[in-house]
Structures are given as structure tokens and as C-alpha cells.
Amino acid sequence: MNASELRDIIEWMIGGARSAPTPPQMMAECCERLVRAGLPLWRIGVFVRTLHPEIYGRHFFWKPGAEVETGTVDHNILDSPEFAVSPLSTVFRQGVEVRARLDDPASARFPIVVDLQAEGVTDYIAVPLVYTDGFVNASSWTTRQPGGFTDEQLDAIRSIAVPLARYIEIITLRRTASLLLDTYVGNRAGERIMGGQIRRGHADTMDAAIWLSDLRGFTALSDRLPAETVVEILNLYFDCQVSAIRDHGGEVLKFMGDGLLAVFPIDEYLGDEVQVCSRVLEAARASRAGVEALQFANGDAVERFRFGLALHLGRVLYGNIGGGNRLDFTCIGPAVNLAARLEKIAGRLGRTVVASERFAGISDGGWSDLGEFPIAGFAKAERVYGLYDEAPVAAAS
């Protein structure tokens, strides 16, 4: 092991590994430099847990002469029998090293040893990567060197684990902040906040298609069901909309009880109103079908659900609004207010999807004129449109 080269690698990592701008590139360069310094590495893995509602963690695998493999695992891995008997499970739970020399019969307790033997691996060590707050991630190191790792080589791996943990902690914190912002405020809003748009009053205007929906009969439903059941129903109901909205270029800004506010931005330079409205309508039809198919067993009865959706096109103010140090990144403006009024009209008319005259005039979706209605807070009445393929039903209470 070349001690001078090892120190250079450690200093490079402490300095932020600037020659490798992405985590996979950093891992590739680090492992290649370690091999040149005399560390006989074969398959190396780094396993990083994440703060994400769907993803338990990310993994990175390096082998000589190959691209770094990356992937994710969901939270179900915690219940898998394979993970329970993995060395990594011990590292995560106890924060200790786990070694499996393949010539040691005791290593047979780890099923992964069989796979490693098939690759010609002679030694395996899982090393904790400990953050400054004590949070533990893990790394695995293998070699095909006869006799396994030497004590000097193991010490080199342990010395690398410390700066590697710091590098991963910094990258993970930035990534976690981005993921949390995406999860709780939406992708575009998250990008703006990460970009420094954090002060109250920081706002921009944009043209967008506005989506405002509401679950019919929710008040009566929540009055007669346990709170836990209501939350479960809401999650199923929102699932019917969120994926359709995101798949068609929209961004969910806010959940308001059983209500949902989303926007589909219009590019001011492309002038793509027709394409945007077409995607919005596709998302609306997909959401309508999903909610119509949704049912929930309630004792001997089966609850079925309906929702109302108002679509409008207009200019919104998009930015930070709030009081003191508690802010919300959302959109406001007359266009949003009009969408909210239209959603109430949809309920009175027994319609699922309604649109303003401006949206229906741009979207070629087969609209029927439902009449002109006075709008509270607006001086002018608004003509409202409904889909041809939708018959009105009795409004839910």
C-alpha cells in the first residue's frame, strides 16, 4: 500500500472530490485511485439511506473496468428475509464492522458468501459510514487477493471510510433537502427555494392551467368514519389524481383537506396553451376514471366516491406568502379564485369536470355549454362548460 498516494486520496475527498462532479464519478475515481495505490479491490458497494416516503435507500456498485451501477430500494426491504441475514443489516442496526473471510466456516452464516465465492472473492468487510450526528450508512469491500485483505489494507479501508462518510453526508443533505422540497412543495417550487427564493414577497407571475378539485360528500363521510379511515380514503383518492397530474406535466401545489390545487405552467416563449390544455384534459379523464373505480368497504356497505374538478387558464402570482418565519410557496390571484368558484358550481350542477370559457375555448375536448353563472366576488358572470361524455348526477351533500 502506497501511504503517500493514500494520503492524497484522502485529501482529495476532504476537498470535495472536485474532479468528479457526480457521486458515481467520485466513486469510480476513488476506487481506481485506491487500486493504483496498491489496494486489491474487486466489488465495492456504498449504501445510503434516504429520507423519502417511498425510497429507503440508494446503492452504488463499482467493479474494475465497469460503469458504476446505481439503484434504489423501497422500504419493503426492511421486511425481506434476505436483508435480515445480510451483513449490512448488522452495520445499520449496530454501527459495527462485519467481516466474512470466505475461508472461515463461520462466514457461511451470511448467504451472500455463496455469491461472492462464485466470483472468486476471498474476503469481504462491511464498514459503517458514520455521519456527524451518529447516523449510520454502510459500505462493503471485497477482494480476490489470495488470503484476503492484509491488516494494512484493512486499515487503509477504514481510513478511507471517514472522509467518504463526510462526502456522502454533504451530498445526501443537499439531495435530501431537494427531495423533501419536491415532496412537500413540488418540483418547480423546490427548485426556486433551493435557488434562494426564500424571502416573503419573492414571487413571480406565470400563465398556467389551473386544476382545483374536491371530494364530494367528504364532510358527511368524515363525520361517520374513524379519523384513521378518513386518512386512508384521502390517500387513495389523491393517488388517483397526483400521478395523472405529474405524468402530464403538472405540479401539485397544495392539499387542502379533501381539496387539491395544481398548476400546469405555460411556456411564455413557446405559447403552448393548446398542448398544455390537452395534457390537462387527459389527466382529468384519467383521474375521473380512477376515482370512479375507487371503492371502500365500510362494514356491510361499499362506499363509492365522486369528485369535482374545475379547470381554468390564467395568470397567477407564484411565490412566498405567509407571516413571520412561516411561509408557504403557493399561487394566488383572480384566476385561482375563479377556479375555486367554478368547482363549487360543478357540485351544484352534479358535474365531475367543468371548465371556464377560456379553458374550453382552447381545449378541444368536446365541451357543452352549461350556461352563464354569476361568480361571487366577480363583477362579470362566467360561462361554464362541461364535457359531452359526462351526464350530470345528483349533487352529493
From TrEMBL:
Keywords carried by this UniProt record: Lyase
The protein's enzyme class: lyase
UniProt entry tagged with the keyword Cell division: no
Entry EC no(s): 4.6.1.1
Native organism: Bradyrhizobium elkanii
Any Pfam family hit: Guanylate_cyc
InterPro entries: A/G_cyclase, Adenylyl/Guanylyl_Cyclase_3/4, Nucleotide_cyclase
Gene3D superfamilies: Nucleotide cyclase
Domain Guanylate cyclase: from-to ranges: 209-343
GO molecular function: adenylate cyclase activity
Key word Lyase present: yes
This protein's name: Adenylate cyclase
PANTHER family: ADENYLATE CYCLASE, TERMINAL-DIFFERENTIATION SPECIFIC-RELATED (PTHR43081), BLR2264 PROTEIN (PTHR43081:SF11)
